[in-house]
Amino acid sequence: MLDLAAESGPADVTTARIAAAMHLTQGAVFRHFPTKEAIWLAVADWIEENLLGAIEEASLSSSEPIAQLRAMFRAHIDFALAHPGAPRLIFHELQQPGDSAVKRRIRALLGSYRGTLLQVLKCAREREVVGRELNAEHAATLFVGAIQGLVMQSMLAGGMRGVEESAEGVFEVYLSGIAGRRA
């Protein structure tokens, strides 16, 4: 599903395309999933398990908050590079009107991510490795927004090229901002 979403976007992924990609009949697909939404929910579950797993692992990779933030940023970028259909699905779902089960699942995923990020940012503030006046909520928004911006720019350029090269520089700018240093 994510490979198909990466090729043409989630809106263009039909059950016929899913079945063809898996060398199955459409009937076989529907024997496992009662609806197309159930398929997307399973994909959202997979993204949640794997992305949040990578973020959690990265947050535990060091006792130093800045190293944790760096590892989390890198883990998210690596996930997006390995699974470019995932950010496409997330962006697509969040833009849809209404409140589907898939959209709720993605919002929950982002909420869990944000919770982990806020813990690390608050620890960084308590240890005074970032500015004392740091607003952790705003810093979390900027962290995720920086990654989303990198991914979105790459998608607009026709692929995920360029994300890896830009990620380190963008993270350094982010760090400079949360450190409380004045230009």
N-to-C span: 45 Å
- Proportion in β-strands: under 5%
Q: What would you call the structural class?
A: mainly alpha
Determine the mean pLDDT. Answer: 92
The helix tally amounts to: 9
State the order of secondary-structure elements, H for helix, E for strand. HHHHHHHHH
Overall strand count: 0
Shape: elongated
Poorly predicted spans: none
Major beta sheet, specifics?
none
Question: How does this model look, in words?
Answer:
The chain is an all-alpha fold. Helix content is 75%, strand content 0%. The termini are far apart.
Q: Short description, anyone?
A:
The chain is an all-alpha fold. The chain has 9 helices and no strands.
Write the layout of secondary structure elements.
Layout: H1 2-8, H2 15-21, H3 26-32, H4 36-59, H5 65-82, H6 85-95, H7 101-126, H8 136-156, H9 163-178
Looking at this protein, list some descriptive labels.
183 residues; mainly alpha; 9 helices; 75% helix
